[in-house]
Specification:
By secondary structure, the chain is α/β, with parallel strands linked by helices. It contains five helices and seven strands. It has one domain: Rossmann fold. Bound molecules: S-adenosylmethionine.
Length: 201
């Protein structure tokens, strides 16, 4: 991840997370690589189910310039008030959750009216790459902590009631080809007025 962040992913994190506002929930915060980039937000609740990751996440809390509360939990098990977050950040996590539709239903429950989802994810490619992703995901999952390289988080957001208001597709070349295509996207509940400055994909 150090190499990927140095090769441009860190800059992508910074640009996307800068769009967070209000009360923020980050699901699957890992070791907290996004934490230094939160600026003008009221609070970040960082969820992470893995005990070892949570320990490292706690260490990065000190690098944040905003209040951060770490909660060791999956999104399904977290006891959080419905509709209480203005921004929900999914960063390289929708590939890892067991049930992406259930996860996005929880996201929908937790998102406040007018809130937005910020997603930085690797995605399903097209053509030969998609075929390679389909063929290698069963093995890849076992070596990469449950990661499904062939998921399409944009499609998952759309089928779970979100509209994509901004989506930048890019390639990360200093990684395995099956996880090279990425998106950086903003989503809102369908029917929500577009955020200023956002454009349709
Ligand atoms: C690849 S890491 C990404 C970490 C971090 N978000 C980043 O951008 O570097 C995926 C993380 O999602 C967490 N995770 C897996 N399933 C989860 C769930 N159901 N709810 C919340 N987090 C989950 C894993 O423990 C892991 O730390």
């Amino acid at each position: 991840m150090d190499q990927l962040d140095a090769a441009g992913l860190g800059e992508r994190r910074e640009r996307l997370v800068a769009r967070a506002r209000g009360r923020v929930l980050e699901i699957g915060a890992g070791t907290g690589r996004n934490l230094p980039f939160y600026r003008h937000v009221a609070e970040v609740v960082a969820l992470e189910p893995d005990a070892a990751m949570t320990k490292r996440l706690q260490l990065r809390v000190e690098q944040a310039s905003v209040p951060v509360t770490v909660v060791q939990s999956t999104i399904a098990q977290a006891r959080l008030a419905p509709h209480s977050f203005d921004t929900i950040v999914c960063s390289l996590v929708l590939c890892s959750v067991e049930d992406v539709d259930a996860t996005l239903r929880h996201v929908d429950d937790l998102l406040a009216d007018g809130g937005h989802v910020l997603a930085l994810e690797h995605v399903r490619g097209t053509g030969w790459r998609a075929r390679m992703q389909d063929a290698s995901t069963p093995v890849w999952r076992h070596v990469a902590a449950g990661c499904r390289a062939n998921r399409d988080p944009i499609d998952a957001l759309r089928r779970n009631g979100f509209a994509i208001t901004d989506c930048d597709r890019f390639m990360m070349n200093r990684t395995f080809p099956i996880v090279a295509p990425h998106i950086s996207a903003v989503a809102v509940r369908k029917g929500t007025r577009q955020l200023q400055g956002d454009t349709n994909e």
